[in-house]
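Below is a complete specimen:
___
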Amino acid sequence: MPSSLDPTFHITTPRLSLWYLDPSNDAHMSFLCTVQNSPENIAVAQLSGVPAPKEPLTIASARASLVARTEKLAETGSGRYIISLNSPTRGFEEEKAEEDKEKEKEFVGYVSMQLHRYPHLPCPTIPDLGFVLLAKYYGKGYATEACEALMRHFAETKGHARFAGFTHPLNVNSQKLFRRLGFEDRGVLDVQGVVGDGSAARIAVWTKGVEEGMELGELGIGAGEGGGRVEG
């Protein structure tokens, strides 16, 4: 299966590397299934009223769900990035075949940056940051490190200075991470453009880099074209 994604592109931090989540890469799809089928991920989804899946996510279904988004990820950077731990021998592996390097990667989760998620719908006009880790990698600072790197990449290469974060109002752990990243709590709003059926999702909204006094409605979030503020 050919891919328009550059398999050599990656964003590096002291401990991590971020790669395009590539539907043509079996290792990526296998890990995505592991994450999506984990009890922790299913529990977070159920907070939003999403019923538990009748069947586990498979590599084939994971691949099918991502193929249509590949071109957008390649052209704009908007999409998901899989996170791997840097090898202690990084820098001494030039002789190793790429296939062998791929097999040896230890994946810990993924981060995402979404902008105009659904182009046919009113959407937030600033990118929103997302993150998912396997539970065994919690508490090590990996999510913070990966999120900071992705925001820095978007600031330096795309010129973005404002970012949003959306999560379920009861997802305390995600909100703690947004706070550590320097985001501001903007309350719970009805926001359009984050689910594909055209409805507004009631979510906790966090922002970073949004100037004091700027209405979120000007950014397509909450009050204004998006929907009303429902609670503080």
